[in-house]
What does this fold into?
Amino acid sequence: MFGIRYSNLSKCFFIGLISSGLLWANSCVHKKEELTASPNIVLILADDLGYGDLSTYNNNSLVPTPNLNKLASEGISFTNAYCPVSVCSPSRYALMTGTYPFRSWKKSGVLSNYEPSMINEGQLTLPKMLQQAGYTTAGFGKWHLGATFPTLDGLKPAGFGKFKADNNGANIDLQQPISDGPVAHGFDNWYGFSCASECWVMDGDDIVAALQHEFYNIDSAKHKEHIEIIPSNTYLKRITGKSKRFLTQHAKTKNKNPFFLYFAPYVPHIPLSVSEEFIGTTKAGPYGDYVYELDTYIGEILNTLDSLGLAENTIVLFASDNGSQFERTGLHIDNANPSNDLEDVNGKSQNPKEHHPNGNLKGSKWTIWEGGVRMPFIAKWPDKIPAGIKSDKILALNDLLATISTVIGFDLPKDVAIDSYDQFPNLMGDEQLIRESVVVQSANNRMGFRKGNWKYVEPGNDELEGQLYNLLEDESESTNLINENADLAEEMRKELRHIISGTVSEK
It folds into this structure.
């Protein structure tokens, strides 16, 4: 039986006596009997999916999501789960390392094209931990945490540090492998891109394909005869198929090691590359169609687990990397050519024919508001996690590393995953106060601090003072209470700054 621990600060130790008298000390490797009892893990991370897209979180959602609704009915849904940054790269860094991204070299914003890895050499990641514990690890879809691309001239890749460049890929050496990408950080199997605007798709470390993208291209690249062009509206189906084949092959080989599957689709991120069979299938416009398509393919993965007899001993986790960039969608709204820019976001209205991807929450992707940083989070583990329950306890993506370490009985060293709280009791429905607070961050580096029911937001460029909201009474952040609660705001400001300037979260 796997061990259970409620702190990630314990010293890494393991004493296993076997018939030969061999001592495995200080290795964090587990006996075979324990390893085979460890559950499989499937982690699904949507891209720019809003808190209000799922009807299990938003009764007024216009998007059918039957498979995710079923997942919620069979497990636990957290209603106060955080990204904790309202854009892609930093949230994925928090997920993978258990560390706030402002502690990395990339202090704010997302990685631009061809920038190096946000993950330090030797830094423990979620897949690396599972790999060390004997798991077979596989990831499909999107990385966006950086990698090093080889070039023909030894210079930086053309377009380095930009999001769009006319000469993108001009000097990339497509015959050579990348380095410091997903494989280097814990994935035995990887198929997907690092950054969509780079276009390149890797199989392991090899560049094998490119996305046919509405916004970006590889026209300037040389020696690309072997590169397969993948239409963006077929990419979701492709990575779903590869995920299903991974599960099937794992079952066929009767591999006694458990597996970790990271399914990271580029959906419903723009461009809204809905496949033809899903166009017009919802009342929420192309965005809603895309979310419905995502739900359908998630259903295929869940059904594959069932058909292979793997579901019973598999934990399924679902989350989004940040909120939706759309505050409203619908059949009457033209979202055909949306820009990836906060300035073009349109606010909500009371039109009942509109779908609000972030529900009642204020703001969207990029912002410090709840619509940008609060996410749906669902977990299912048959006969372990009670079915159909909800938790209002605060949870963050950075908590998954410590929590999963407890699930598999892996003792984390003291100096890793320093902002990760072990949420195992809450995952199991025990409802304990484990994380009292969480730091949140916008794309432009505005900082906020949720503690209990209160949320403090630091002043913006045009403000003299910050903002303070009681989220229990004002989930939509409509009434700033900072003047009435100046002492509380100052206390929270100091605590926020202490965490940011320190080297570890207070636990």
